[in-house]
UniProtKB/TrEMBL annotation:
<dbReference type="InterPro" id="IPR004031">
    <property type="entry name" value="PMP22/EMP/MP20/Claudin"/>
</dbReference>
<keyword id="KW-1133">Transmembrane helix</keyword>
<keyword id="KW-0472">Membrane</keyword>
<dbReference type="GO" id="GO:0005886">
    <property type="term" value="C:plasma membrane"/>
</dbReference>
<feature type="transmembrane region" description="Helical">
    <location>
        <begin position="138"/>
        <end position="160"/>
    </location>
</feature>
<dbReference type="InterPro" id="IPR003935">
    <property type="entry name" value="LMIP"/>
</dbReference>
<keyword id="KW-0812">Transmembrane</keyword>
<feature type="transmembrane region" description="Helical">
    <location>
        <begin position="66"/>
        <end position="87"/>
    </location>
</feature>
<dbReference type="GO" id="GO:0005212">
    <property type="term" value="F:structural constituent of eye lens"/>
</dbReference>
<dbReference type="Pfam" id="PF00822">
    <property type="entry name" value="PMP22_Claudin"/>
</dbReference>
<protein>
    <recommendedName>
        <fullName>Lens fiber membrane intrinsic protein</fullName>
    </recommendedName>
</protein>
<comment type="similarity">
    <text>Belongs to the PMP-22/EMP/MP20 family.</text>
</comment>
<feature type="transmembrane region" description="Helical">
    <location>
        <begin position="7"/>
        <end position="29"/>
    </location>
</feature>
<dbReference type="InterPro" id="IPR004032">
    <property type="entry name" value="PMP22_EMP_MP20"/>
</dbReference>
<feature type="transmembrane region" description="Helical">
    <location>
        <begin position="99"/>
        <end position="118"/>
    </location>
</feature>
<dbReference type="InterPro" id="IPR050579">
    <property type="entry name" value="PMP-22/EMP/MP20-like"/>
</dbReference>
């Protein structure tokens, strides 16, 4: 049980760090415009030597930002509850912390998956038709890596919950 929770905490910790980096950085997409390479993130777009804040409130950026922030919060609270489950902190007796942490990690995975899906769909439809020389960049890629890590965090914590709830009987019948 502790090895599953340890693996879940490791995946969740790395996933949360990657979520923070992915959300905060400006390399979700790179493209060539007027013979200059430019890149953009969720908050800013950058030309050679200078970055500017997105001034337009475009729905897919707002949705992606909101889902990424919700994912960060769910993962953070999952880590806190996961640590409490690991050290047997018992302020709530009828509250299974390993189950709650697993659910929060799955919720985090779902939110980051939604964010990545929205961004991917709109970007491919918009930039794919207008610009020939563009690509997703490393901030976007680590967003997808965090989907996988938060998913495995949820799996690990659900396995720990199952081991805790269904201990194996030492004398078979």
């Amino acid at each position: 049980m502790y090895s599953f929770m340890g693996g879940g905490l490791f995946c969740a910790g790395v996933g949360n760090i990657l979520l923070i980096v992915s959300t905060a950085t400006d390399y979700w997409m790179q493209y060539r415009h007027s013979n200059n390479y430019m890149h953009q993130g969720l908050w800013r777009y950058c030309m050679p030597g200078k970055c500017f804040t997105h001034t337009d409130s475009i729905a897919y950026w707002d949705a992606t930002r909101a889902f990424m922030i919700l994912s960060l919060l769910a993962c953070f609270f999952g880590i806190i509850i996961g640590i409490m489950a690991f050290i047997h902190y018992s302020s709530f007796d009828r509250f299974d912390k390993s189950f709650a942490a697993g659910i929060l990690f799955f919720i985090s995975c779902f939110f980051v998956f939604l964010a990545m899906a929205v961004y991917t769909g709109v970007t491919i439809n918009y930039y794919g038709k207008r610009y020939g020389n563009w690509r997703f960049s490393w901030s976007y890629i680590i967003g997808w890596v965090s989907v996988v890590l938060t998913f495995f965090s949820g799996i690990f914590y659900m396995c720990a919950y199952r081991m805790h709830e269904c201990p194996r009987s030492s004398n078979p019948h």
